[in-house]
Structure formats: structure tokens, C-alpha cells
Design brief:
5-stranded parallel β-sheet; Rossmann fold; 9 helices; Cytidylate kinase; alpha/beta; CMP kinase activity; 3-stranded antiparallel β-sheet; 15% strand; ATP-binding; binds cytidine-5'-diphosphate
């Protein structure tokens, strides 16, 4: 396929965005950009440096001095420190939506993300990709699934990795984060008007990837 396009994948927590985005990117030979990892990286660094997360100015100043790099193997580096595992901790997960609600944090993150996406041939996933980061993306997908299915998926993922995991706790955390992400003032989690919604509750990973690849190929 000749024409390089941008594919924006948004949706609530654990809907399968990153798993499916990686498959689609690989099939098309595109790069995959995980914007959630960027917000998680800032959150990790803020907590690590004992910065008060309610102090917006301080958090924004911290971001301006922070390099966040993600390599082809999806390893994440904050000022050259490998934080790939650290950014998935419960502490980061429980604080990331607070950091992500700061308007000036989003402004800076969106600028960085737009630079990464400017050459097209990109699959980017997050919460505001189709609405704010790449509003002119050729393909926009909004992935959803029931909250119990999403909690079950995260729980199984943790269990497989040998991490301690509590299904009830995960469900609560996901609901809380979705609520904060949907209700924040600046670029909330929201389906773009021209996005195609896919309910993945009863779909396999490959079925979802196939649907998105079909959209890309027929574009
Ligand atoms: O993978 P998971 O659904 O757990 O979350 P993520 O994609 O890593 O995103 C973590 C958090 O970052 C979200 O809950 C949002 O608060 C924030 N985020 C955002 O605000 N905008 C984005 N484009 C991506 C993530
Ligand atoms: O990126 P996001 O938070 O939206 O979700 P993810 O981390 O890609 O997916 C969460 C888990 O759900 C992973 O372990 C996937 O393997 C699984 N999954 C699934 O079981 N069925 C799907 N249709 C999609 C994802």
C-alpha cells in the first residue's frame, strides 16, 4: 500500500488499544506510539522526585526538563533511565489521571506527540488522539468493552506476568480512572465524531486487529 496514513486509537482503560495498535503497526510497517506511556513516565518521575502532584506549576516545570523516549522495542526511558516496568506500578496507575488532567501538561504532551506523528505512517493510541492530537487522522477508532471484561483482561495479564492482582480492585481502579479521564476539562476521553466505535467485549485480539486493518486497507 503506497499512501502513508495516521491511525488514531482511543478508548477507556484496558480496552485492548495498545495490544491491537502494536499488531496493526507491525502489519503495516508503521511506527506505534503509546501516548499513555508518556503520561505514565511524567507521573513516575514526579512521584520519584517527591513533587506534590497538586502543585501544577511544579509538575509542568518538571516536564519541561524531562526527556521521554520510547524505543522500537517499546522500552521507555525518562532522562535515559529505563522505566519500562516502573511506569506500570500501582502507584503510577493510581496517580496518572491527576497529572494528565493538568492543562499545561497536556499542551506540552500533545506538542511532543504531534512531532512524532507528523510524518504519518503511524498508529497512535491514547484518549485524545482522534479529537486533539491527530484530528485529521485518516482512520479513527474508538475501542470499548464492558468494564467487567476489561478488568478481567487486566487481571489475567497481571496473573500471567506473576504479579499480585485483585480483580475487584482492578475494576474499581479502572472505573475511577475512566471517570476522571472522561470528566476532565481539557481534552477528555471522548469518541471523535468521525471515529468508528468497535465493541471488543466478545472479540479476540486478532478479530479487532483485522477490523482496523480492513479500514486501513480500504482507505
Ligand atoms: O493502558 P491503560 O489503559 O492502563 O492506560 P494508558 O493508556 O497507559 O494511560 C494512562 C493514563 O494516561 C490514562 O488513564 C489517562 O489519564 C492518561 N492519558 C491521557 O490522558 N491521554 C492520552 N492520550 C493517553 C493517556
Ligand atoms: O491499551 P489498553 O489499556 O486499552 O489495553 P491493552 O493493555 O492493550 O489490553 C489489555 C489486555 O486485554 C491485554 O492483556 C490483552 O491481551 C487483552 N485483550 C483481550 O483479551 N482481548 C481483546 N480483544 C483485546 C485485548
Amino acid at each position: 500500500k503506497e499512501k502513508k496514513i495516521a491511525i488514531a486509537i482511543d478508548g477507556p482503560a484496558a480496552a485492548g488499544k495498545s495490544t491491537v495498535a502494536k499488531i496493526v503497526a507491525k502489519k503495516l510497517g508503521y511506527i506505534y506510539i503509546d501516548t499513555g506511556a508518556m503520561y505514565r513516565s511524567l507521573t513516575y518521575s514526579v512521584l520519584h522526585h517527591h513533587i506534590d502532584i497538586q502543585n501544577k506549576e511544579e509538575v509542568v516545570r518538571h516536564l519541561h526538563n524531562l526527556s521521554i523516549d520510547i524505543n522500537k522495542e517499546q522500552q521507555v526511558f525518562v532522562n535515559n533511565e529505563n522505566v519500562t516496568d516502573a511506569i506500570r506500578s500501582e502507584q503510577v496507575t493510581n496517580n496518572v489521571s491527576i497529572i494528565a488532567s493538568i492543562a499545561d501538561v497536556r499542551k506540552e504532551m500533545v506538542q511532543r506527540q504531534q512531532k512524532l506523528a507528523n510524518k504519518r505512517a503511524v498508529v497512535m493510541d491514547g484518549r485524545d488522539i482522534g479529537t486533539h492530537v491527530i484530528p485529521d487522522a485518516e482512520i479513527k477508532v474508538f475501542l470499548i468493552a464492558s468494564v467487567s471484561e476489561r478488568a478481567k483482561r487486566r487481571h489475567e495479564e497481571n496473573t500471567q506476568k506473576g504479579f499480585p492482582s485483585n480483580l475487584h480492585q482492578i475494576k474499581n481502579e479502572i472505573e475511577k480512572r475512566d471517570k476522571m479521564d472522561s470528566e476532565r476539562e481539557v481534552s477528555p476521553l471522548k469518541k471523535a465524531e468521525d471515529a468508528i466505535e468497535i465493541d471488543t467485549t466478545h472479540l479476540s485480539i486478532d478479530q479487532v486487529a483485522e477490523k482496523i486493518l480492513d479500514l486501513a486497507i480500504s482507505n
